[in-house]
Structures
1.
Amino acid sequence: MESLFRRYFNPDDFGAPYEEPEEHLLDLVYWVREALDGWNRLYGQKENQPMPEAGREKWVQDLDKSLFHMDARVSASVKRGDFLAVQYVRELFHLTDLEVFTLILYLLPRYDESFGPLLGKGRGEGRQTGPSLDMALKLFHLARGPEDVPGYHRQRHQLEKKAFYAFLQKDGTLDKRMADFLLQNGREPLEREVAETFLPQNTEALLWGEEEARHLAETIAGDGEEKEPLFLCLRGPSGVGRTTRAKRVAQLLGIPAVIFSCAPSPQMRREDFFDALRTAGRETILVQGMLVLRQLDALLEEPDTARQVLDMAGMFSGAVLLLCGEEGNLLELSQGRRWLEVPIALPDKKASIALWQRELSALPLKEPVDGAEMANKFTFTPAQIVGTGQRAAGEARLHGPLGRQDVTRAAYHQVSHKLGEHATLIYARHTWDQLVLGQQEKEMLRMACDQVRYQHVVYDKWGFDKRLAYGKGVSMLFAGPPGTGKTMAAQVVASDLGIEMYKVDLSQVVSKYIGETEKNLNQVFSEAKKSNVILFFDETDAILGKRTEVKDSHDKNANLETAYLLQKMEEYDGITVMTTNYKENIDSAFFRRISYVIHFSFPDEKARRAIWKGIFPKETPLGEDVDLDYLARQFSITGGSIKNIALVASFMAARKDVPVGMEHILRATQFEMAKQGKIMLREDYGEYGYLLP
């Protein structure tokens, strides 16, 4: 009978290195096929025929000789520095000869579809089917059944445990990634749908978080002798840079990172999820890297599943990085494990400025945009800063070089909030030139803007950040009669700083139910913190009134609401603007907790003339008879009333398609006075009274 060994192997190649990695895989396939051929020749006879023991011994010798022949060639290839995928997997997973045999047996249908019928025949089945662990044991020992394999049950248990860990999926099929790795000799990467494999390529330091990344890398490097896995939980808000930090740790360690998401798609079955995790774990071993689990928060509502995920992750990686949000209690998951929590906060001002400068330097700008100004206006995560740069770059490709407002708009597209439930966006269109206000009051407004613009200098460079635990925001109270420009001044501040302004609807915030007002205020300030906006509270007399003697629960609750509003204002790092028509109604004790109190007085004649002069846009056609001196002298009214008169007069003129003249202005003034309950005779309009009917 022909020797199976000589059919597949050439003795003259003994000890010679493989010319190509595929030759080694082919020899392994021959080795397993040799067992299949031998088993079919030995036991493919009728049941009542005796077992040819002499033939069995010959084939066992051929199998041993084949294995010895391959080992000699592998040793020569390894000595030469060749990479052989199967040998690499064997050493990584510490596979025995039986386990390597089983691995190749399961690989056969992927290697060549023609092996299907042969495997079916080996299992005693006429149809094409896959291998099994029982089949692997019988083939490896050329045994007729379990009774012919010494220690069969012990061997099968060990084989099942190792195969499931190293290359089999839960359904008993060969892991696709392991098959691809062997067939491609490690050249093809893992599919990104399963996990992301990050390969360290450079050693560029992080703009922010480098020190923490180095500390993590040192902790992992110094933990090599421990047998139990170490779980390092990086906690922080979304977009704060947890994944970037994990990749930097891998760079510093000089190893790959396999990043797996713990948030399965709704369509994914539980079995498929764990098969994917198992594949990611095997990839971690294949690339000799570190396993990173993203979005562990998604499993907090299923603690049993979360524990199973962590148990499995610990099988494949000595150090496991867990990326989690700030919410959720991880105490139960951490118990019984070597666990270290690492909080990751938002970047400090210095790092934030550096991140903004990096993004801005890559943009085509038609005017300078200061990274420090953007950092002061937006308390952003690194992901939001990068997102702003990407959004702005897209706008630049469509519309050309960008201005300051363009970049600001791109930044606000990174913000997601629910302020619309209690507040309304106010589009700030007014500028300093349009604001008619006393010199001192204007200077105070500019100082308030500078307090935002130069935060990074005073708080960070000059050290005031260490002195102030809170109260770094800017709060302003505008007090004065209706129509004196309080709302306009708030818009000027918003326009000057390039910050969106939301007017808080107090009717939606203040509630008669105890505790509801505080709850609503907390939601407003929490959402404002996400969106970096100016909060504008109009007519806050109702909530900032003088504290009263507590006679009942309503008095006590009103005082608590006032105190709570001031507390949230102090905690808020942004800008809060409040207005009141009656400053005397505000408790004087509150003024010390407000950054700027600006009084808007009733405009005098000079101020009214300035308002009349600037109220009509330059595009509006004015008649030659418009007498601004007369209007300022004759009518003692506020800027709000002047605005209403100018608008109504303009519509009157537009209806007749003529320039705005004195007749239109006086008629509009008549309507405005009547609206305010003031009855004026023609004589009250002086020398222009003849224009009225």
2.
Amino acid sequence: MTNSKKKQLFEVSWEVCNQVGGIHTVIRSKIPSMIDKWGEGYFLMGPFLNKKTAIEFEPIYHLDDSPIGKTVKKLQEMGLTVHFGYWLLVTGKPQVLLFDISSIWNRLDSIKAEFQREYKIKHLGSENLTNQVLAFGEMVRIFLTEYVSEIDKAGEVVAHFHEWMASSGLPKLFTSRVNIATVFTTHATLLGRYIAQNDADFRSKLEIIDWRQEAQRYGIETEAVIERMAAQSAGTFTTISEIIAKECIYFLGRVPDLVTPNGIKLERFALHKLENLHLEYRKHIHKFVMGHFFPSYSFDLNKTIYFFTSGRFEYKNKGFDMTLDALSLLNKKMKKARIDTTIVMFVISNRNIRSVNATAMNSHVVLNEIESVCKNIQKEVGSQLFKSIVSSQSVQLPDLNDFVSEYLQHKRVRTMLSWKTEQLPSLLTHDLVEEDEIVAQCRKHNLSNSKQDRVKVVYHPEFISVSNPFFGLDYGQFVCGCHLGIFPSFYEPWGYTPQECVVRGVPTVTSNLSGFGNFVTQTMSDHDERGIFVVNRESQTYQESVEQLTDIMYRFIKMKRRTKEIERNRMESALDKFSWYQMRNHYDTAHEIALKRKKSMPRPPTTHIGPGEVY
């Protein structure tokens, strides 16, 4: 006999209508496949924080008598503000519930006191984010509790919590025995992310690390406890890669039930169209390069290759250190071999900046003026050239300079003189509030953008968007216009940046210490031939990995254009492997396990589970 109960899925994330990091991409990109599976039974839950949230949200003003409508009304009667409506996305309009945490702020002290008492935290702290997380978690808990009582036995409900910021209410859902199936996914352990930046050998010490002691040392005890309790309270516990699974055992006290790798939304283009897009977007990058470098000196853009790396600023975790060390070796190697190709390396992150660099901005403004002058000259010459040719008895081409007015000739000279400079092209496109490791490392390696350097570096300390004053491209278009993405991460739970390259037909470098790189090495024996290069950071020394990355970049530079086209073709044939319509199966399994375990969790969660007692 089949189960006739209607199933509903609530996905809870801090990054619903609120972009903070990679989880926002995870949630957004899989929405179409989740709606295909759950239909009208699919809901997203997130915090209502500010006007930025409201931009992506379309509210439903008149609530009906559905269980959702009734539950929203119940919370409103309690004095809690819940917004129900749609998340406005290119991929569709999924149903979304946004919780205004300011409406529960008057209860924050009691929420914090109960949490501190329950989990024996010495110093709960007063960080705004932690307070917001605790308030949000309590509102989600109240809503799910009321919703389940509203539907009674008419349906089966799964609540899927992503990361600690969405999950502070999950342990209480378990201890209250609310009739709901729960899943918790950690996309990275908090302790792993913190420790990795300070101890390159931490993975070999996992068994002896005292999680609470380390959490207190880094000032994240409350956050670490939320994460640990969520992992132990959920019906199904998952993580996104086998690399992170090892950390979960020792930091969170539970062996993950399964690994749920991240997929991506595929945008399929015919290969010729993808190549055309690459050429179109590359024109924008060419223009930036002319504006940035050509006031000082010029080089052949037809022999220029664009590399890039991007991600939030975790200098060692994201492999920025290794990338710059390898670029220094590459620069020397290219000079020695007298290779006349130029590499322009874009480093993109998000830092505290004062403003756009005035010199860099002025150069681009003047470049636009030069372009305007050239178009006027072209128009002036074209008109007079036609008249001259048809009226002349000679077949000789006339001197085109004769057709340029004195005004435009003077304007061209004045503009060019104001544009040219003897200064070297700037490393930075923006002025940093404080100099960081990227700037220091470039200085150390003398990556100074001199004319003799075969490798040039442009550090853009702000994420690229279509409103960007330099490129006029969104991030995806910028990626498509480049030739190679480089992401040799030391700590990367998954790694969307290399995956986004693959989707856009751009070859990429990842590492086997990233979830994506680890997944590729296990499932794709010919990944190099498909344009996905994996640096071995697991069983080599740091220097050996630097040399391997240098060799990958050097071989890429020497690769013939035809070979690159074949590589792009092979990359296209591998795309289905990364699609959410393939990867969603792992989530489907997690939800089914949670439904089966709904009333039979092994034991109550505890902060005191040791490595020998994990379940």
3.
Amino acid sequence: MDRLLSRLKETERRYRDRRDPRKKAVERLRKKDFIGANSNEELRARLSHLDVAPELTESVGTRSFRMPQRPVESSTRAIIDNVTLERILASNDLMPISYLALGLQKARSVGRIHVKDTMGRRLGFGTGFLVSPALLLTNNHVLESENNAAGSEVEFDFELDLAGNIRQSVTFGLSPQTFFLTDEDLDFTLVAVTPKPDREPIEWGWIHFVDQDGLLVKGEYVSIIQHPNGEAKQLALRENEVIDLLDNFAHYTTDTAPGSSGSPVFNDQWELVALHHSGVPDRDDDGDILAVDGRKWDKSMGDHRIKWIANEGVSGRKIVDFIKRASNLTAAQKRMRDQLFDGPPPGEQAPSPVVPPPGAPNVPGGNRPAPGVATLPTFQAGGATWTIPLQVTVQVGAPHLAGLPTPLPAAPDSGTPAPVGPVSATDDTDLQQALAEAEDARTRIYYDADQDESDRSEYYADLDPDRLSRDELFDQLHDLLKSTHTGRPRYRPSREVYPWIDLHPDRKLRSIYSGKAFEPEELIREDFRIEQERTLQLQELMQRESGLTPERMQEEVDLLEAQNPFNCEHVVPQSWFGKSEPMRGDLHHLFACESGCNSFRSNIAYFDFSDFEEAVRTECGKREENRFEPTAGKGTVARATLYFLLRYPGKVNDPEELPADRLSTLLQWHADHPVTEYERHRNQAIFEKQGNRNPLIDFPDWAGEIAFGKGLG
């Protein structure tokens, strides 16, 4: 977060220093005076790049200059060049339909970067793109060092197909030991991609560096292909007006979201002009950064909640210059560096579809398209291949994918993993129902105190804590919680947690450890997407490998869950109870939590650091060895953990996971952070769905009268 604020300050300084010339240029652009908004040198370079006759280019700035009108030529590039000229004249802004095909070719090379530590824990997302058959370009602040890149991955084809379903993606590791070049000032990192035995990055083509001047002038629009906030691939198409050009940077107005760091920025010729890396935040009269909802922004909200007024990209030409000057490269690395400037991938200038003859075999290592779905071009040594289906099937809702394993309900409190059985793909009806419930939540009574008091009195009517010892109170509460636990929902946070149960009074979700606010629809859609992605990847595995044993299948399920975690936290980690039911789906210890904080905490027990307020820590909290202290939610997670020990005594039985001395920490957090309306709402909502309650929320004073040590095995 400190690096983010430092980067924003540098961007703001550049933006502020250019206020007067930018203001003049913008005034010209609003009057459609594109020629007046740019210097003569900028225009000459741009026209020269567009192949305008030298004598006309040289006359820029003189009375004899007239913007040339050229006949429409047959090639896509020539047509686009003509439109660019007319755009500068403000007389035309139409593009040929083949413009989209060129964009699709570029989009194939753009991937989602999974930023991970060396232990494989995901730290966040970014965007990156291939710039040669083996090298990937992204931001320095996405992959800061070789060590940072070593555990990270790039995922291609993470996007929607024509039917609106997530395509089957392919993930590659990164190989910084093979090639790694970075610069903090220009905020770029160039790193090698590790090929697979049966797939190579070259299959996705690459985005060619154009080592020429004249790629852009003020007033033109740029397009950005990106994975905003780690989402499926998206395109900001010609809605980003360039308002200023600096020596090393370009400023343009757009709404790109966090996670777009490392995205390629293109001109109308689909030439790489910049590497998107930062933005200029909006501020109030006191100089405080504003959030998208108009409130004062703070670190706990995350950079995706900042309100941006302009964005900044690093000049592609300057990155090229830096790469060419790099001297500390081995002979093999120099050869890889030289590939950057060998030219565009084969077939890039010939986007016309090629229909394979009937019965033609699949190209080895190529995509295996689903029936009825048109695929993007596959780059091979001799050109580009497009697969066009002869039959299209339209189906309402998601298809049924038979034969995929999913946990089935286990015997009550069995303590053993659930067996494996068939499952269908995520049903669109479930998604719509979850979204509808979240919408209804906006007008529902959030917390009915009178009803809650009545339910609470009836629930504990047969319990008299004043007559019971600490051990007896523990035993009787356990019996009560177990016997009334009649509703046992499966672990489905997008349906069971986000729409209503975990909402705060403002009807938003908040990450339990960082306090970041999210719209419930955002996490509902994201977790549905993750669930579908897991299913598709598991389906691919089963098609590729027959005869998987239940043990191997469980290993694969565990791996997919680790690679694609829900935005939901079990405050008692699943590894402590073997992912068994009903513990896994028990709503009392499930909370919204962005995957970065989820991974950061991992399965480490809570701890109270003496220097927490002064220590350097992330927005999620502080972690050292087997100790973790969250930034937010301490009282809430303490009460949820104590509930778990009451409800499931003996299920947590490894002192290395939850040392007995941590109970005092939980009880102290419970005392220091009183029960909130949010927790009372949760408790009542869970009671209605699950049948049991959390006594630490209902009667906080009972905490000191219960022998919680009995809950540890």
4.
Amino acid sequence: MFTGIDEVDWAALRHACGSAEDVPGLLRGLASPDRTEREGALDRMYGALHHQGNVYDATLACVPFLLTLAGSEAVPEREGIVELLVSIGGEGTDEKDTGQEGPGRQGAGGGDREGMGTVGGADGPGGARHSARAAIRAGAEAFVRLAGDADASVRGAAASALVRFLDEPARVLALLRERISVERDERVQIALAESLGLFVRRHPAHADGALELLVARSAPPNGPGLRLAALGQLMGCAPVRAPADPVPLAVRLLRERSARRSARRAEDGRPGKDTLVGRLWRLWPSDEEGSRLLRSVHAALDDRVADRTALLEGQLTSPDPTDRCNALWMAAGVLREWRGDHAGLVALIGDQLGAVEGRAPDAAVSVLTDLFGLAAPAADPLAALVASRSDLWVRRWPRDRPLLGGPIRALARSGDPRAVPVLAEVLAGPVVPGDLGQAVGHLGGAAAALAPAVRRRLGDIHLDSPAGPALAAPLLSAVLALGDQEALPEVMRLVRGTASAGLCPADAHVREVVGVLGAFGPAAREAIPVLRRLLDTEHAIAAAGALWMVTADASVVRPLLLRELEGRDHRRRRAAAEVLARMGPAARPAPASLRRRTESGHPWDRVTAARALWRIDADPAPVLPVLRSAWTHHPHTRGTVAECLVEMGPTATPLRDLPAAELSSRRRHLALPGGYGAHDILKDERLLALCREVLVGQGCRPV
């Protein structure tokens, strides 16, 4: 298996962790008789040789040995090696077409994604990937043998490899037809059905035979798992060949499959409910195959949000807790990607908070936390959970930093006033969560009742305590969110105390201090010396903004802001432009540097400069083209552009088409296809509200 391995100059090759000198040991570890060593070697192969989907020159050198290991029956668990080869040689498009994850270990850096970059390429950027793919294709006959291997897991892993790497479509189809006609293992049948769908997408000229096989597998007497797999593939690559009413059928097949799976678990003699292992197993059930099958159906439905919602409702009402838990993560993807009336779906998510066992309650909290106001239909079960579990009010993460627990954070973010008494109790406790101010901000006027408690905690801070800054920062954020002018004495006590100690005031929480002082305006005149001192620090721009709010003296802050506009750091340029925008006409005449920034290569430079120009000179001519360009080409700027359009009122009528088109769009403006990634629903919902406000301000009826 390892003939020639010592002839490779591994020290001259590189992988994600540096020198590839350790690779021979990893390859030998894959063939170890010790299971722990084999699994560790495979994990390290992903982490070093295929990190985040990249391919290195050392990865290329491994391909012949991996092919040999995959074909040796003396090596246990070879399916992992086959999956690694498939991921290394993948093209990064098939997974996105089907809505499925790639075959690699995503958590360990596996899974091919085109465009992620290749480091240490054999012949230039992307060269190692291309060469590795070619090497795997050259050895594709190995997958023909593996498709008939005695090990079912190996047969399943080899199915997609046949389609990806064997460059003879007619032969590939014949092999798939042969294998699916004789295969009896349901997991392998499902893998073959998924490979048939992949075949149709890659070889449309040869699709008819593959589609016939899929149509046959989508009907009785085939088992529900195979039928569900075939249904998903037909919906994705040939919807006219799919059965009618696919969503109710998918729900029924899912439930039939889950019932069979539950029966098999009981027959398998899983640990009993009275054992620790049994309890752990029930708490952490897993059905990755079922999740993958439903992801294929969701991917095929794509923008048919009503159908996807109906499918999710079927999943969330399944008797099987694992199905419901999988549905929660899929629901999160739909909610992140698509706009619409999601009240019914969110209410079903809230129902999972009362699950007796399993991961569903934690998963539901995680989903609801990211919904903000959209979580309102689940507020009742959230409030019940918060009231019954005071142990979940505060958590220490990361590094023992206290934060609000998921349920109370989700309830507060939804704007529900029932969060207020709980936050009051938290404030009366020994810690102050670091995200208190954020929670208060989402509660709006209902949070006013917290102001006395916040002032009291601020007044109790020992100025000479090392823990003082950590306590002060979230309390100051809460003061700012509350707009509590009555907190001025407590804030000034904090400022005076640190200043008298000869320290730069509140180094650890200066942003919060400056923000609060600016919000107090002229009432904070006592803090002017402190703010002036900060003009010579890294906090100069924020201090200048606060100083303007306190003194209204443009002569002090304008020169500093003009210098910052000419700097190289685009974040500081943006911050300076935002302060000038707040100054408005007091910053006249508009500096030439602002006009130059509207032609900058950085979109935020252009948008913030244009907004400042409007507020200073009220001249739409240089502003409107910048706003249109930014909105069109840089969606992440749309929230700020929409704010500017609201301020401009009827003057912005030439750009009316932008908010009108946004309101008619079904996809969230920052969403990635498939709902992947961490997208801020709050930003999108706020953008929609601003778009409606723009149209109302221009005398139009919002969509």
